[in-house]
């Protein structure tokens, strides 16, 4: 059996293979190297061969160039970078027209992975399993996209695995019940996962295998490509050049140099590079580690990392996990190579706990182990409720269905019994939403001028997940004919006030989809049998 893991990254992609033979008791993942398109990166554990996530569209066969070959063509509108992050972005870069054809992020990403699949076939690897990895914060969006791609390419035994969870196994943290914080800081996203490893009975491949339990998560839509942009903008300010006055090719050129400077600053204190501008004038660009740290602080990246760490620690503490109990801090992704990032993380947890020897390969290698031996238990990051109309009080209330921290997949042990909301009710509709705790505080100053605050009020706020067609987001769904009511079932005979009418059983599947089964108590008929209601965020 041969398994292939593809850690599709915003800046670079790692591809690893695991060949399981009956005579091999403990197979070791290895990273694949593709001639002409792969690029080697230096780490403290040696070289790591990665495929730069770049696509160049040619006007002659072969139509597309990948990785290092694409980079060698120079910066132009034909070169695409950073397209992975745009797949699930709310606001995407517009499609580019090249030789009469339009290419958006999804099209380029599909070309990139299709070309990789064809190269795997040329190596006659014949994988029996393909595993993709996806960031925590946008897992559902990537899962759907990867599923469509797998169907198009007819990929065998297709899986998608959480990047942060896979990274723990990539660092060989397989001791039962080990508490591990994975900080995955790549080109496009910052993802933190606090996980606990545990043994699986009768592991098929090794003495100990682990089932990773995700205890807490945090994420931010920020990464290495943002740092590249900030560095490039820093240089433009020094040179007195406005971004709006530059052609796209010149901007992409200085972005590429900014990326190389950032990478080199992970190893040395100061870097100098030459950039040739649009007038073919050579400009010297210089940056130190101290200046890079200032750039990160000015753009609130250091603060965002602090907030993400604090959020994970706070969630963990609510679940009985103290900061001191965390045994390993695992750094993954190229942005974790930056000295200021490592210094901040080390200041939080101490040098002995932080590991950063496999920043590029841990996720792909761990995905292979996870795909073979592991399963993931996950928890809800929010509480979810159903909004109900109280006819006698003439107001809405909400009833919590699943609490924050509940493991999923799961189901409610007892059904929810509901009455008709209005006399003569003909339809049943469910308004499912997220419950958030909103705190209000009073800010005061003491005699020394120091600011202090005290919490005055904490209340729960309901945010509906049901999409509306109405132009008015606050419109009453009972009185607004344009509101999307998410009608679930029809009542025959009509519902009447004051008597129990329907029983609803709720469950959440492994993709965080809320599923309902509705039974009419009056007629004893099942109106809806395990229908998907809404995707929980």
Count of β-strands: 32
Oligomer: single chain
- What's the overall average pLDDT, rounded? 82
Number of domains: 2
CATH architecture of the largest domain: 2-Layer Sandwich
The helix content is: 10-25%
- What structural class results from the helix and strand content? alpha+beta
Distance between the termini: 36 Å
Class of the largest domain in CATH? Answer: Alpha Beta
* Main beta sheet: 7 strands, mixed
- Rg (CA only): 26 Å
CATH topology title of the largest domain:
Nucleotidyltransferase, domain 5
How would you characterize this protein structure?
Helix 6 (224-239) crosses helix 7. The model is unreliable at 199-211, 438-446, 448-458 and 469-485 (pLDDT under 50). Helix 4 (139-153) links the parallel strand 11 and strand 12 (158-162). The protein is α+β, with helices and mostly antiparallel strands and 537 residues long. The strands form 8 sheets. Strands 1, 2, 3, 4, 5, 11 and 12 form a 7-stranded mixed sheet that branches. The protein has a 7-stranded mixed sheet with strand order 19-18-13-14-15-20-23. Strands 24, 25, 30, 31 and 32 form a 5-stranded antiparallel sheet that branches. Helix content is 25%, strand content 37%. The chain is globular and about 80 Å long. The chain folds into 2 domains: 2-223 and 302-378, 2-Layer Sandwich (Nucleotidyltransferase, domain 5), CATH 3.30.420.40; 383-436 and 464-535, no CATH class.
């Amino acid at each position: 059996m041969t398994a292939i893991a593809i850690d599709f990254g915003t800046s670079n992609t790692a591809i690893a293979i695991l060949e399981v033979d009956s005579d091999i008791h403990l197979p070791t993942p290895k990273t694949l190297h593709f001639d002409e398109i792969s690029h080697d990166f230096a780490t403290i554990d040696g070289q790591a061969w990665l495929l730069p996530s770049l696509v160049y569209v040619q006007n002659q066969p072969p139509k597309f160039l990948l990785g290092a070959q694409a980079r060698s063509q120079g910066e132009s509108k034909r070169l695409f970078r950073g397209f992975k992050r745009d797949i699930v972005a709310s606001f995407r870069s517009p499609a580019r027209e090249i030789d009469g054809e339009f290419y958006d992020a999804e099209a380029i990403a599909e070309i990139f992975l299709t070309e990789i699949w064809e190269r795997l076939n040329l190596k006659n690897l014949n994988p029996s399993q393909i595993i993709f990895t996806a960031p925590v914060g946008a897992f559902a969006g990537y899962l759907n996209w990867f599923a469509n791609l797998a169907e198009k390419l007819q990929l065998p035994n297709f899986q998608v695995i959480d990047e942060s969870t896979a990274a723990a196994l990539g660092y060989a943290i397989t001791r039962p019940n080990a508490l591990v914080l994975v900080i995955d800081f790549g080109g496009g996203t910052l993802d933190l996962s606090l996980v606990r490893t545990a043994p699986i009975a009768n592991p098929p491949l090794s003495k100990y295998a682990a089932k990773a339990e995700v205890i807490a998560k945090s994420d931010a839509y920020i990464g290495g490509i943002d740092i590249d942009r900030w560095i490039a903008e820093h240089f433009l300010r020094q040179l007195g050049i406005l971004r709006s006055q530059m052609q796209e090719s010149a901007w992409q050129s200085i972005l590429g140099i900014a990326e190389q400077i950032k990478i080199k600053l992970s190893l040395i204190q100061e870097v100098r590079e030459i950039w040739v501008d649009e007038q073919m004038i050579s400009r010297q660009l210089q940056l130190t580690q101290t200046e890079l740290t200032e750039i990160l602080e000015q753009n609130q990246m250091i603060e965002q990392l602090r907030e993400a760490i604090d959020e994970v620690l706070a969630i963990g503490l609510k679940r009985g996990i103290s900061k001191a109990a965390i045994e390993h801090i695992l750094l993954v992704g190229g942005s974790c190579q930056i000295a200021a990032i490592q210094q901040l993380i080390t200041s939080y947890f101490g040098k002995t706990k932080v590991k950063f020897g496999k920043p590029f390969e841990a996720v792909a290698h761990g995905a292979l182990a996870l795909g073979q031996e592991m399963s993931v238990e996950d928890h809800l990051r929010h509480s979810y409720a159903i909004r109900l109309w109280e006819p006698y009080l003439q107001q809405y209330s909400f009833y919590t269905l699943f609490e924050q921290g509940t493991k999923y997949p799961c189901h409610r042990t007892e059904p929810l019994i509901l009455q008709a909301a209005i006399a003569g009710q003909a339809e049943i509709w469910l308004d499912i939403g997220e419950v958030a705790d909103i705190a209000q505080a009073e800010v005061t100053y003491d005699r020394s001028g120091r600011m202090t605050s005290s919490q005055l009020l904490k209340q729960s706020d309901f945010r509906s997940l049901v999409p509306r067609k109405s132009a008015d987001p606050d419109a009453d769904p009972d009185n607004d004919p344009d509101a999307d009511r998410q009608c679930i079932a029809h009542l025959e005979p009509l519902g009447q006030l004051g008597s129990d009418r329907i029983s609803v059983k709720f469950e959440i599947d492994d993709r965080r989809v809320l599923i309902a089964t509705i039974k009419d108590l009056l007629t004893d008929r099942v109106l809806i049998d395990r229908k998907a209601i809404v995707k929980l965020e």
